[in-house]
Write a structure and sequence with these properties.
It is a single chain. By secondary structure, the chain is an alpha+beta fold. About 30% of the residues lie in helices and about 25% in strands. The chain has helices at about 25-40, 85-95, 120-135, 180-185, 210-220, 250-260, 290-315, 345-350, 405-410, 415-435, 440-450; strands at about 15-25, 45, 100-105, 115, 135-140, 145-150, 155-160, 165-175, 190, 200, 205, 225-230, 240-245, 265, 270-275, 280, 320-325, 335, 355-360, 380, 395. Strands 1, 2, 5, 6, 7, 8 and 21 form a seven-stranded mixed beta sheet that branches. Strands 12-13-14-15-11-17 form a six-stranded antiparallel beta sheet, with helices on one face. Strands 3-4 form a two-stranded antiparallel ribbon. The chain is globular. The structure holds flavin-adenine dinucleotide (FAD). The site of flavin-adenine dinucleotide has 39 residues, from α1, β6 and α10.
């Protein structure tokens, strides 16, 4: 039987109008919405979940990275490359007792010299406070399900939620869905890059005897990343812990079978190894419902098996139990939207700077194998967020870079947050001046960002 179709005749109510509509309240979307609203735009932020933060609190652990890779290059100065709203979020988290701030790595400094941890539950409250203070209207449990267009210009999105199917009209739409859903609905060109990487599902275990675990791992020369710091407890100061589980043959056999790596992890509270990242599955198209469903089920099996094996075989885990899994599979790479500029690995590792750059960044997730030259940092131009051929649209986040080796830098949380501030500010300025984001004066954008504590060198 050939493909079947039904014909729908839809009449969709326009429920909201705004200057800036941000689709996706993840890592890039939150800063985009805050920046847009603070720059005077009537801003709406939508997300399919009941919380904000996206992959940053649902798969990523340590935030990589506010700083350059100075520890890999003796004599190189430590520079805080990302500041502005991302730093403000960390300040608010510290004030709320939800973050130990920026921590230097004791071991593993050539991978990332400084990591930043946040408590996800506290973040969920803090970020709503920040949205409220900025005047962002937050619509949760709604999915962007289509685009409203006038010729080549996007004029809004169709959302679907408990109130049914509704339209939100906007001067500028920002696609921060990670998967480029809104841009794809709007007809932007894209490629899919899921084949180049893996999806994953970190998990957390409580009642782990962290000192006993680290002693065992050190005796067997298995530790590759470590930070000891005060986490307000008496018996345990291990806050970052990565190790090579494959050194144990039983684990090597299981891990090789599924491509499981690491794990790399973090522990924010005593006896709580709250983030253990290592499970993985290759070549999952997370924009395909069936593939995503299968991946969810397969990864949950990996989590169950791996946590049970840790408990049975690794000292320190004897009394531990599984206490956290993310709300869904962690997706790294799906659609990449075809923008006016596509960051290359050469530009990244050679610290390329641009006249129209709107952020700087100094971390690469493949370090020390791939490193940014001399612990430096590079710029991302405004053009990298402007999709070709569609007006009224900006994109930000893990969807902007088409080559995996380059994406391994731009996709990281702190980069996404900085990208969000840049595009949110741009969208507000475009709305204020009644221009399309493509026609925006990048000089004005850069001046505005600098005044708002964005470091542009
Ligand atoms: C397993 C894993 C581990 C990682 N570890 C690290 C790490 O340790 N450190 C690090 O810095 N980075 C890490 N990363 C990478 C990093 O977390 C992401 O690349 C980054 O957070 C992506 O941000 P984003 O804003 O582009 O997308 P996301 O944060 O994924 O945000 C997208 C948001 O859009 C929403 N959304 C999606 N589609 C729709 C729709 N149609 N309608 C409405 N809402 C929608 C989602 O709910 C989500 O909130 C990891 C990623 C994964 C998957």
């Amino acid at each position: 039987m050939g493909e079947q179709f039904i014909q729908e005749n839809l009449r969709t109510p326009v429920r909201y109008t705004c200057d800036v509509l941000v689709a996706g309240g993840g890592t890039a979307g939150i800063t985009a919405a805050l920046a847009a609203a603070r720059n005077g735009a009537k801003t709406i932020l939508i997300d399919r979940y009941g919380f904000l933060g996206g992959s940053m609190i649902n798969g990523a652990g340590p935030l990589h990275s506010f700083f350059n890779l100075y520890k890999a290059f003796p004599g190189v100065e430590k520079v805080q490359v990302v500041r502005g709203i991302p730093q403000e979020i960390i300040d608010r988290m510290i004030a709320a007792g939800g973050s130990p701030g920026h921590l230097e790595q004791d071991k593993g400094g050539s991978y990332d010299s400084v990591i930043t941890l946040i408590d996800w539950e506290i973040f969920k409250g803090v970020i709503f406070d920040m949205m409220e203070e900025a005047g962002v209207r937050v619509l949760l449990h709604v999915t962007a399900a289509g685009a409203v267009k006038n010729g080549s210009r996007v004029t809004g999105l169709i959302i679907e939620g408990k109130s049914g199917r509704e339209a939100v009209l906007a001067h500028t739409v920002i696609d921060a869905t990670g998967d480029g859903d809104a841009a794809a609905f709007a007809g932007a060109k894209f490629i899919k890059q899921h084949g180049t990487t893996k999806v994953g599902m970190p998990f957390g275990m409580t009642n782990v005897d962290m000192p006993r675990l680290v002693q065992f791992l050190e005796e067997h020369d298995m530790v590759n990343q470590l930070i000891r710091a005060d986490k307000g407890g008496k018996v345990d100061d291990i806050i970052r812990l990565g190790f090579e589980l494959k050194k144990i043959p039983l684990f090597r056999e299981y891990m090789d079978q599924f491509g499981i790596w690491g794990p790399l992890g973090a522990s924010l509270h005593e006896n709580n190894y709250n983030y253990i990242n290592g499970t993985s599955l290759s070549n999952v198209d997370a924009t395909d419902t069936e593939a995503l469903s299968k991946a969810e089920i397969a990864l949950r099996k990996q989590v169950m098996t791996l946590s049970r094996m840790l408990k049975e075989h690794i000292p320190g885990f004897e009394n531990a139990y599984l206490t956290w899994t993310p709300v869904c599979v962690g997706v790294r790479y799906t659609r990449v939207i075809d923008c006016e500029h596509d960051m290359t690995l050469e530009e990244i590792v050679n610290c390329r700077r641009f006249d129209d750059e709107v952020m700087l960044y100094g971390f690469h997730d493949c370090a020390p194998r791939i490193m940014i030259k001399n612990g430096g940092y590079y710029g991302i131009p405004y053009r990298a967020f402007l999709p070709k051929g569609v007006e009224g649209l900006l994109v930000a986040g893990r969807l902007i870079t088409s080559v995996w080796e380059a994406h391994m830098s731009t996709r990281n949380t702190v980069s996404c947050m900085a990208q969000g501030q840049a595009v949110g500010t741009a969208a507000a300025l475009a709305a204020k001046s009644g221009t399309s984001p493509r026609e925006l004066d990048t000089g004005l954008l850069r001046e505005t960002l600098k005044k708002q504590n964005v470091f542009l060198g």
